[in-house]
Amino acid sequence: MTQVSEDTVSEQHQPAPQQSVQEHTADQPPVDPSAATVATVTSAAPANASPTRSPLEGGVFDADQPRTGWQNLHGSAAALALTRTASQCGQLFVVLTATTADAEQLRRELAFFAPETLPILTLPDWETLPYDAFSPHPDIVSERLATLHQLPRQQHGILVVPLATACRRLTPVAFVASQALSLARGAVFDLAAERKRLDAAGYS
């Protein structure tokens, strides 16, 4: 498991609350945080962090160095450090942001720096309250379903999640897999089996 904590700076360059990033695979039990590898992006390096490094170097995680960090990163430098680290480590990093706006800004910055071989995924917030009488926007529903369907098979990349979204329960992995329908040009599938599956899902 790789845990990354990020102390971001807003447009007014005011420090935001500490954020954490965790790699998480569906159906895995919780991992002891004390055993996790940690990378920190902050204005002051942790006491037990590695020496100051450039964001161009990325982070290095191994048994001898369970923590790495960067100091005095400005603008989009944090996104650059994360993309370099994710590319070098070949793991899935989950980045938690304070707000949905922060998540969208970070996603754009990561997409700018990331190579084509590094997937950048997002799990957007519903942007509705439990007592709202209207449904979330269809684009949000589609993006969430696409991400949840892809995550169980995703071995590397960066997933950006607003903190409020991470606090909500998710649809079971088995349910998403059973209800997903992937179509591609030239694909062949059993029409009768698909008809039964759609009937079971409520389509008629």
Care to give the gist of this entry?
With 204 residues, this protein is of the alpha/beta class. The chain has helices at 77-89, 100-113, 138-150, 163-166, 173-179, 191-200, and strands spanning 2-6, 19-22, 37-42, 67-71, 92-97, 120-122, 157-162. It has six helices and seven strands.
Structural class estimated from helices and strands: alpha/beta
Distance between the termini: 44 Å
Q: What is the subunit arrangement here?
A: single chain
Largest sheet: 4 strands, mixed
Low-confidence parts lasting 5 or more residues at pLDDT below 50?
Answer: 5-38
Gross morphology: globular
Biggest sheet: strand arrangement: 2-1-3-4
The Rg value, from CA coordinates, equals 19 Å
Topology (elements, then pairings):
Blueprint: E1 2-6, E2 19-22, E3 37-42, E4 67-71, H1 77-89, E5 92-97, H2 100-113, E6 120-122, H3 138-150, E7 157-162, H4 163-166, H5 173-179, H6 191-200
Helix pairs in contact: 1-2
